[in-house]
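DM from R.C. (forwarded with permission)

"hey, sorry to bug you on a friday — could you get me a structure for this? deadline for the figure draft is monday and I only need the backbone to look sensible"
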Amino acid sequence: MRLRSIIVLTAVLTASAIAPGTGSASPVRLDFAATPPPPWNVVCGDPPGASAADGILTIDSDCFEYQLSHPDGDWHRNVSNSRGWAIETRVRLDDTPGADVPCPKDGVGAAGVWANDHRVLVIFGFSTEGVCLAYPDDVTFPMNTTAAFHTYRFEVKGLRVRVLVDGVLKIDHVLTWTGGGSDVLMFGALGGGRTGEDVRSHWDYLEYDTFASGALPTCFGKSATIVGTTAADMLTGTSGPDVIFGWDGNDTIRGLGGDDRICAGAGADDLRGGPGSDFLQAGRGSDTLVGNAGSDNFDGGRGSDIASFASSTTAVHATLAEGTASGQGADILVGVEDLVGSAFADRLTGDDGPNRLFGKDGRDSLDGAGGIDFLDGGGGLDSCLNGETLLSC
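My reply, with the result:
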């Protein structure tokens, strides 16, 4: 692993005291009409390893990085691990031999982002294999990083790390240790590509947010209008469109009317939209998501999560393998393992993993598909297929 000036620590570090920032208000955004100006500096490479044209920064090298060194720049003045921070960028790799490596490789990626917040060093990597948390732990989301630009958002607060791709949570991880290394913010070709081969990456923008100016957390790309705590919160929206952010804890969140965006963190959360087109996103834990009327988006995150249609006023057809549900709207299901039907004749189908399907009342049709499944037809004359445990069928 080619980590600069590294000091490996096996214990959790105490966060450094940081004076309030006096620079620009967060967030700070780099749009690449030109190559990054000072105080950004080039390390591990010399021009022409990078060029800017039509608002895109292209880095073409086996090792070429733009770096903010401590104490230069708003990042170092303002970042706080306890408050949390986010980095967002829009990137595409070329499908070249240099990028055709595992992600991570040597604790980095063929290209990526290096961020030290004075307590934790985190490295996020890209290769043709996918996007990854490359250091200090190793977590990969396999995807095609070469066919098109994607927006990647990296969020860190304490030891919790989240990676969102095009607004959808793909990695939700708690670090096992804090790592250690150079106190810099850096992006580019990190030297993890195939030996002797250049890595060509294209960067549309890079933005970092230290929340130093009191900036609010975001949910599906919108700033929160209602914010909870890390305890168990009960949060209720308004009759209009709300953006509700619950943080960690066993939260109960009600969106009520309007097209709501509701996000929660780790914990056993109960998230409910209202009569609108709602976006619901839970984190790690066993969560219940209820869209109610309207065409809704469900993202259960990690854990065993339930999409419930118990309050639907019509029969529901939900298929976990396809990630869709229809009846009270045209819903999208991501990260959902279990389904609860309505009081009508529902058709509920699982996927290749272990599922629990609950038909409730009505003449339901339940199909566990693959995996080891639990099927409960509930009231009514129900049919059950491909289930290992059957009740009321």
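R.C.: lifesaver. Residues 1-25 have pLDDT under 50 and may be disordered.
me: no worries. The first strand starts at residue 28 and ends at 31.
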